[in-house]
Design goal:
By secondary structure, the protein is mainly alpha-helical. The chain is built from 18 helices and eight strands. A two-stranded antiparallel ribbon has the order 1-3. α5 packs antiparallel against α6, α7 runs antiparallel to α8 and α8 packs antiparallel against α13. The chain starts with a helix and ends in an 11-residue tail after the last helix.
Length: 517
């Protein structure tokens, strides 16, 4: 990825190129839309800028849209769940958890909408310019691959809009003064477009696995994303699964699994030194010091400011090393709750202060209400964590462990807990030397085991909130959180958020509010 300065220049060009005659003349010593989109190098820079937009704004996580919500701040989404508490209210998580959600709520409620459409606008401009380009320095194959990558990104953003708002405008062309006011279409149309874009990406992206593709979307990246979309939409409001859809999930996951392998060391997935060429990573938001790093990075936000405070009830779900629940296992030690536990606990959570062993410690300037801090995305190489820390660890968005768990969930619902289901889950447990699942589990028992494994393995990777929604258990779970430091309040209408009021006002009545708000 290029430096932040280059990204800002290119993003500005991509935005301005959608407006005609915004200046009559441009200085010859500066990049302008009239001199851009002329060479292969221009498109390569613009493609980099489309990827770079996943980083978010150059501000902080308190901005609107909040910086890095799909990048380095991805773990913050778990502050909307039963996993953790966000004491600094980044993204407005306190308001959302408490049920204070309206068309004027800021943070994520309005920020997701704004950010996704900003990113989609840039994608649409890129695709429009690429389709018009007649230069012979880009081959047809290169054009298709570039289009596939940007359409993957567009699908990613439209999927977020689908999940959070339902019916929204479907914009596939650059906006002008004539078409800038857009009405909503049905959520089914948004989902249809997500699949159209992902299928194009699957057909036209590189067949190399992601870890061999220099940070570019690959065929398997798009397949994994499609599996995530399918499994999210496979359950109805009663929680009943569509088995035909889950069969497709299992097939997609089966095609991905031979191309990847689990990282032998779990924490390598989240620390800079272990990420390059990691055979488990299927897609990530990439950073590179000194220029292309967050203004306030992963290490200071989570390791010093303590933006995430894991709840005691979350810590309690980690088993002891004998595979029995903490509190039931004879290995339970109430005086040292981190002892004899699933090794993923000590990698995911720290108690009081960060301790990497060998005297490598960091005592945060903030305290955590629960006494626990978030460790998973921190990097020991960056000790001590402060304002000068350059956190360049990538944010892992899709990885093989999630694919294995999607396969296990889908296959279990379709065929019950057969050998392949056991193999998928046990491979993940074996990586951290946890015992295999007991034989003879029923479909219902295996379902609960898989859900437990997702919560433990994928904690703070931005999936828990989506899991609670797609299984239709958000109210059941969130309204029963008792250790969250504020009163949780979930209503069924929160499965979709309101359209931000300022967006409705801009569209002069063309854009209508969601009916529940």
């Amino acid at each position: 990825m290029k430096s932040c300065k280059i990204l800002i220049i290119i993003l500005s060009i991509i935005t301005l190129s959608g407006c005609e005659d915004y200046l009559d003349k441009q200085p010859l010593d500066q990049i302008s839309s009239s001199t851009f989109w002329k060479t292969k190098a221009d498109f390569e820079m613009a493609l980099t800028a489309n990827y770079g937009y996943m980083h978010g704004s150059t501000g902080g996580p308190w901005d609107n849209p909040p910086a890095g919500m799909w990048g380095y701040m991805l773990p913050n989404w778990d502050n909307l769940t039963d996993n953790s508490y966000g004491q600094h209210n980044y993204g407005g998580t306190k308001s959302i958890v408490a049920g204070d959600i309206s068309s004027t709520t800021g943070g994520y409620v309005s920020g997701v909408y704004k950010f996704c459409y900003q990113a989609i606008a840039r994608a649409n401009i890129f695709l429009n310019e690429l389709a018009k380009y007649e230069g012979n320095d880009i081959s047809e194959q290169e054009k298709k691959e570039a289009e596939a990558e940007v359409r993957f990104l567009r699908a990613y953003y439209y999927f977020q809009l689908y999940c959070f708002y339902g019916d929204v405008p479907l914009v596939l062309e650059p906006l002008t003064l004539e078409n800038q006011e857009q009405a909503k279409v049905g959520a089914d149309k948004i989902l249809e477009q997500v699949f159209i874009d992902l299928d194009f990406a699957i057909t036209n992206s590189s067949s190399n696995p992601y870890y061999e593709n220099s940070g570019h979307v690959s065929q398997s990246t798009a397949q994994a994303m499609k599996a995530r979309v399918l499994i999210y939409t496979a359950y109805d409001r009663s929680g009943t699964p569509n088995l035909a859809q889950l069969e497709e999930v299992a097939e997609l996951c089966s095609s991905i699994m031979p191309k990847y392998s689990l990282s032998p060391v779990f924490e390598d997935l989240f620390q800079d030194a272990g990420q390059k060429g990691n055979t488990e990573i299927i897609f990530s938001v990439n950073y590179l010091a000194p220029d292309n790093v967050p203004a306030y990075g992963t290490d200071i936000v989570f390791g010093d400011w303590m933006a995430i405070s894991p709840l005691q009830s979350f810590v309690d779900v980690f088993e002891c090393i004998d595979g029995l629940p903490w509190g039931e296992s004879p290995l339970t030690n109430p005086d040292n709750p981190m002892e004899n536990r699933d090794p993923r606990l000590s990698v995911t959570v720290f108690a009081d202060y960060v301790d990497w062993g060998g005297g490598s410690t960091h005592h945060p300037s903030n305290s955590a209400p629960s006494g626990y801090g978030f460790k998973k995305f921190l990097d020991p190489a960056n000790i001590p964590y402060g304002y000068s820390t350059l956190s360049q660890q990538n944010t892992v968005v899709l990885r093989l462990a999630e694919v294995l768990l999607m396969y296990a969930e889908a296959q279990n619902e379709v065929s019950g807990p057969d050998e392949s289901v056991y193999n998928a889950v046990n491979a993940i447990r074996d990586r951290v030397e946890m015992p295999a699942l007991p034989e003879g589990l029923s479909k219902e028992e295996m379902r609960e085991r898989i859900r437990h494994e997702r919560r433990v393995e994928l904690a703070f990777e931005g999936v828990r909130y989506f899991d609670l929604k797609r299984w239709n258990i958000a109210g059941e779970v969130l309204n029963n959180v008792t250790d969250g430091f504020l009163s949780y309040h979930w209503e069924d209408k929160f499965y979709h958020w309101p359209i931000p009021q300022e967006e409705i006002d801009k569209n002069h009545g063309v854009l209508e509010q969601n009916s529940d708000y």
